[in-house]
Prior knowledge:
Layout: H1 7-17, H2 20-26, H3 34-44, E1 63-65, E2 68-70, E3 74-76, H4 89-100, E4 105-106, H5 114-120, E5 127-130, H6 136-148, E6 153-157, H7 167-172, H8 182-189, H9 192-199, H10 219-229, H11 236-246, E7 250-255, H12 258-266, E8 271-274, H13 288-299, E9 304-308, H14 314-322, E10 327-330, H15 332-363
Parallel strand pairs: 3-10, 4-5, 5-6, 6-7, 7-8, 8-9, 9-10
Antiparallel strand pairs: 1-2
Helix pairs in contact: 1-15, 4-5, 4-15, 12-13, 14-15
Amino acid sequence: MSVITTIEDLRVLAQKRVPRMFYDYADSGSWTESTYKANETDFQKIKFRQRVAVNLEGRTTRSQMIGQNVAMPVAIAPTGLTGMQHANGEILAARAAKDFGIPFTLSTMSICSIEAVSAGTQGHPFWFQLYVMKDRAFIESLIDRAKAAKCSALVLTLDLQILGQRHKDLKNGLSAPPKLTIANIINMMTKPRWCLGMLGTKHREFGNIVGHVKGVDDMGSLSDWTAKQFDPALNWDDVEWVKKKWGGKLILKGIQDTEDARLAVNSGADALIVSNHGGRQLDGAESSIESLPRIVDAVGSQIEVHMDGGVRSGQDVLKAVALGAKGTYIGRSFLYGLGAMGQAGVSKALQLIHNELDLTMAFCGKTAIDQVDSSILLPGTFPK
C-alpha cells in the first residue's frame, strides 16, 4: 500500500474495499449532484494570505464546541449506515474520535445502537443525532436512551422531513443488510476483507430501531416503517418539544437560510449547523461554505455557528473557521478512512486534517486557532 497523505488516498482505498452499494451511498448526492460537488469546489476559490517572519512556536488547535474542549474545531458528523462501511463502524469511529479528543455524533440510522457505542467506548460521552418521526413515543424513547448513555449533546436534523432522491441508491437497490441478488453477491465476492468483518459481528441492522419499535423485528418491516415515519409535518413547535424533553445541549442541523437561522436562535438552541445534508437533499442549493458568512453575520453573535459539507482537509477547516464557524463536521472524510482501514483509517483521516490545519494556520502567521479570522484570507476570494 502506498503512503497515505490525503483524504483522497483514503477514498480510493475505500472504493476498492467497500461493496459498491455502500460506497455509493456515502459518496453521492441527490439528482445531478451539483450541490454535493459545489460543497467541495467552492472551498477551492478561497485563497490564504501567507505571512512570514512570525514566531510560530507553541502552536495549538485546541478550542471549544458548545462549551466542550476539542483538540481541533472538528466533530465527526452523523452518518447513516456507518456500520456498513466497515464492521462495527460506529464503535470504531467513536473510539478514534475519543482517542483524538473530538466529538463523535451517532446517527439515528446507525447500524450499531446507542448502547453498543456506549459500551464500545467504555461510556465515553458522545453526541446523538435525532430525526423527528411520526412515532413520538419512539422519539421519546430514543431521547431517554441517549440520556442513559450520557450523550453530551443532541443534534436535531431539520432538513430530512422528506427524502431527497439519490439515483445511485435506487440503481443499487440499497438495503442493510444487502439483498443477496446475483449482482450484489458478485460484487461482495471482490471485497473479502469486508465480508469477513461482517461475518464476525452481530451488528448488521439498524440497531437503534430494530427491536425497539413495536412491529419492527426485521429488515423487511423496517423499510416500510421508515418510509412512513419521517415526518413531513415537522415544525418549530416540534423543536421546542424536543428541547424540553432533552433538557441538555441542543444543536440544530440543516440551516441554510438567514430566516431559519433567526428561528434557530429563537428556539433557544445552543448551536446551529450550516448544512445542506452533504448535497443529499435539495440539489441546486448553495454550498455550505457560501452560506456560512451570511448566517454568521445574521446570528453569529447570538448562537454558536458550525458548518458541514465538503470538508476534506485541514485547509477547509481553517477557511470555515476564518469565515466565522466555531466548529466543523466531517462525514465522508471519516467514512473513507473507515472503509479503507477501519479505526486506524479514521485516526489517519483525523491526523491528516489536523496536520494540514496546524501547518496552514502557521503559514498564515497564526499560532492559535482562536486567533483566526477573515484577515488570514485574501480579500475578494471569499464570500461575504
